[in-house]
Amino acid sequence: MGKVEGGMKCVKYLLFVFNFIFWLMGSFVLAVGLWLRFDPETVSLLNGEKAPDTFFIGVYILIGAGSLVMLVGFFGCCGAVRESQCLLGSFFACLLIIFGAEIAAGVFGFLNKDKIIQDVQNFYATTYNENNNSTLILSYQKVLNCCGTTASPCSDPKPDTTKDCETGIKDFFNSKLYIIGYVGIGIAGVMIIGMIFSMVLCCAIRNSREVI
């Protein structure tokens, strides 16, 4: 069985290091997803019976992607160390699928960002009009440091309250969605490098075995 030599051996170890970093990034994505899902501030804003679940759907996708990236990174490490064309080919295919899914999820999130925020604002406004002293409304006002709505501002706002809660909701969820976006862009860039390395090494392994 032929072994890669020279420059390809360097690619082999670079791919191993890449996959280890890729595995760590998967762990980071999983951690970010779990943080967004169980963050007390976020949960307190979306734990009502009629609360929209669009934001958490995106978070669940992030958690699933992080777990899958960790698994793929592990198999990529094994493929690089064992110089297995099968494992490297599977690694490339998995990266390509994840990359495509991430692009689709990113486009979906970008196109629906305003809808997610609008759904939460509508949920808040409806709940506020029903009972503006409910536990949920007080939670919104405490977390977002806001009061009232655009149509019904607070009659006696706190001294440090400078915005209505609809504006507060927009600012809060924009910051959360940007975190998801930045993480996704970083992972996509790393995946492209991984696909290039895996194909170069896979071709080198095949050529070395054909020579022998």
Beta-strand segment tally: 0
Radius of gyration from the alpha-carbon trace, in angstroms: 24 Å
How much strand content do the residues show? under 5%
Q: What would you call the structural class? A: mainly alpha
Distance between the termini: 8 Å
Biggest β-sheet strands, sense, barrel? none
N-to-C order of helices and strands: HHHHHH
Rounded mean pLDDT score: 77
The tally of helices reads 6
Low-confidence stretches: none
Helicity, as a percent range: over 70%
- How would you describe the shape? rod-shaped
Give a brief description.
This protein is an all-alpha fold. The chain is built from six helices and no strands. The protein has helices at 7-38, 40-45, 54-82, 85-130, 135-144, 165-211.
Topology:
Blueprint: H1 7-38, H2 40-45, H3 54-82, H4 85-130, H5 135-144, H6 165-211
Helix pairs in contact: 1-3, 1-6, 3-4, 4-6
Question: What does this protein look like?
Answer:
The chain contains 6 helices and no strands. By secondary structure, it is mainly α. Helix 1 runs antiparallel to helix 3 and helix 4 packs antiparallel against helix 6. Helices cover 80% and strands 0% of the residues.
